[in-house]
Every structure is written in C-alpha cells, then in structure tokens.
C-alpha cells in the first residue's frame, strides 16, 4: 500500500481547494503504481480536476512527471509528497488539428469564388490562381484526413487556450492573408504580373506543382511510418527508419516546408513566402526538440549522422 501527500505547486488550484491531502493507492506498490494512478486518485477526490488538467512533479521540482513512470522509477518513497499544478481547461489534440486546418479550406474558396466581396469587383482567374487553389486545398484536406485516419497522439489533450494561438497561423497567415494575396487582381489572367511571363506557362506551373505534390505525398509517407511505430492506445516510441528518416529526424517537417517553398516559388507571393518562413521556423524549433529527445531516449541506438530537419545541413 502506497501513501502520497498531494500539495499545490504555487497557488491553490481552484478545482482542488482542500489541498494538501493524503491519498492511499489501494493495493498498489511503488513498483507498479504509476504517476497516472496518482492523477486518477486526485480526480476521484476532485472530479472536475480531471487527470489531463494535472501536472505532477516531485516536491520542489518543476519538471513534469510522465504518466507511465512508476513511483519507484521517479525515486518516490511511500509517505512522500508530490506537487500538483492546474494546467487549465483542456481540449483534444485531434480536435485542435481539425479546427486549425478547416480554416483555410473555407477561406480560400471564399476569396476565389466571391472576389467582389473582397476586391470590389470580379476577377478573371489565371491558370496560376486555379493551380494555387487546387494545391492549397489538397494540402489542408490531406491534413484533415491524416488527423482523422493517420495520426496517433502521444498526449490526449493540450491547454484550450492553445487552440487560438495555433489557429492563428493557419486561419490568418495560411487562410486570410494567403488567400487575399493569391486571388487578387495582381495575379489575374490579364495582369502584367502573369500575362506573357513564366507564371503563364504550363511547363513552369507543372514543374512547381509536381514538386508540391511530391512533397505532400512524401509527407504522408513519413506520417504513415510514424503511425506504424506506435500501436493504437499506447505511447510507445521507437527509432524511425526509411524514407527520409535515414537523413533527418523529422522528414515530415522537411517535406511540408518543401511544399510551401514550391508554392512560393510558383507564385512569388509575399504572403506565400511569409507563410513558408513562419512555418519553417516553427517546424525547425520542433525538429530540434524532437532530435534531442530521440538522442536522449535512444542513446547509442540512434544514428549519429542524422540531422534534425534539413538533410546534410541542420
């Protein structure tokens, strides 16, 4: 039988006003009682303070404890103390992704098919604009498909406030700003920026469209590889291999960046370049974190010559 004292980390959580409390984990031992078991026991005392809202840490330490770790593994002794912090209202990762990606799917057709609302007049769309609409919708519909049928998430939820921050990138930068620039009269059929230029040539459009589609299919392939490494309902992690993973830790980010680079080169749009650079910078940060996490978790098993995101460079 294991006894755990739970005290607040910082200010008292509003949903658990009676802290500190002492919990008894039934017939559990230090060797088989997990951090997740402690969270469940807290939730049993304070039903609205559900496990996903809780961040547990050792007394005096801010580092979050992993749900799957046993109390013995984290060095806890029966009768000891853990700190809990309220992470705030949570929302499912899958829900966040669905909300993020649906924005551009709605926004781009609105700007394309109802130009009078946004530009004050009709726009005779160029072939370039038609290709842009198709490629952008391809990307975000694919992302919605992956969210529902491909991705397996290691964490069930994230703070609810993040849905607004995450959606800004897609709804505003990749939605409103990108759509406004791509479908405006500047890139219309008889605009000097298009008519008689390379952006009016099928070979030019096909070349960059082919790179975009290659990058999208490659991105999907890497997601399928990652899915195969994690059995459903688990947080299992393994060293990924094959199709890009032999060069970088996060080829999914590399291929997504390549897709938006292709669209930027095809259009020359300032909004496309902004979306490309902003997205690539964020993905590079994530890639570095994942790269370091892989090296720390798998040690000598992890290939030393892999870069984080860009082959042979970074």
Automatic annotation (TrEMBL):
Any one biological process term the GO annotation gives: very long-chain fatty acid biosynthetic process
Record keywords: Endoplasmic reticulum, Fatty acid biosynthesis, Fatty acid metabolism, Lipid biosynthesis, Lipid metabolism, Membrane, NADP, Oxidoreductase, Transmembrane, Transmembrane helix
GO cellular component: endoplasmic reticulum membrane
Domain TECR-like N-terminal: 27-79
TM region(s), chain numbering: 204-222, 269-288
Pathway note: Lipid metabolism; fatty acid biosynthesis
EC number from the UniProt entry: 1.3.1.93
Primary enzyme class: oxidoreductase
CDD domains assigned to the protein according to its UniProt record, in alphabetical order: Ubl_TECR_like
Membrane-topology descriptor: Multi-pass membrane protein
The 3-oxo-5-alpha-steroid 4-dehydrogenase C-terminal domain, residue ranges: 157-314
Cellular localization per UniProt: Endoplasmic reticulum membrane
Family matches, as InterPro entries: 3-oxo-5_a-steroid_4-DH_C (IPR001104), SRD5A/TECR (IPR039357), TECR-like_N (IPR049127), Ubiquitin-like_domsf (IPR029071)
GO molecular function: very-long-chain enoyl-CoA reductase activity
Family classification: Belongs to the steroid 5-alpha reductase family.
Protein name (record): very-long-chain enoyl-CoA reductase
Species annotation: Sanghuangporus baumii
